[in-house]
Specification:
Mean pLDDT: 96
Strand content: 5-15%
CATH class: Alpha Beta
Largest sheet: 5 strands, parallel
Strand order of the largest sheet: 2-3-1-4-5
CATH superfamily: P-loop containing nucleotide triphosphate hydrolases
Number of strands: 5
Bound molecules: thymidine-5'-diphosphate
Radius of gyration: 16 Å
Number of helices: 9
Length: about 200
Amino acid sequence: MIALEGIDGSGKSTQAGLLSEALRARGREVVATREPGGTPLGERLRDVLLTAEPGGIGALAEAHLFAAARAELVETVIRPALDDGKWVVTDRFLDSSLAYQGQARGLGVDAVLALNAAVAERCVADLALVIDTPLEVAAARRCAGPDRIEAEGDGFQQRVADGYRELARRFPERVRLVAADGDPQSTHRAVLAEVDALA
Ligand code: TYD
């Protein structure tokens, strides 16, 4: 199971797509999914999380809602796929909550890990690849109609980026930074190199 992570506008969704295609081209069965979302309940929670009015969801409630969407995704999509011997490529997973709610919102990584403990017992990504795009490149990609979390602004994204760096230091065996200079193909090669090192 591989999770693609990064700040808003980092290009992780493009990388998740390219990785799924590359693995399929190698004959792997791949289930591609995303968070929040990926299930009917998850898509409804995504809507709540991204369209609530500013200040309408407190940090702790926000962390629980993301965890609920994740629980549903693990139970109905990810665990069955892994049990079937398939590969799972997910656009965001647990480390998004650790970086956004744990670090950027200030709940603390350990507190957010604790509230995701039951999910983490069911599955942990073998690798979380953080697409490490410069803040200004990511900001330029976010310009069209920000959602509630994107509307938090550049200072917030900086805290998320710092959060991911901290996670890569704390969990070096499963969280890796992939330097991204804006060229999707060169970033894709770096992503594949990390996945190949794992397999
Ligand atoms: P994303 O799907 O990356 O947004 P988009 O479709 O606009 O590219 O993620 C939605 C937002 O949710 C994003 O700002 C990150 C945030 N998020 C968290 O804060 N915590 C989480 O646990 C997850 C999964 C996402």
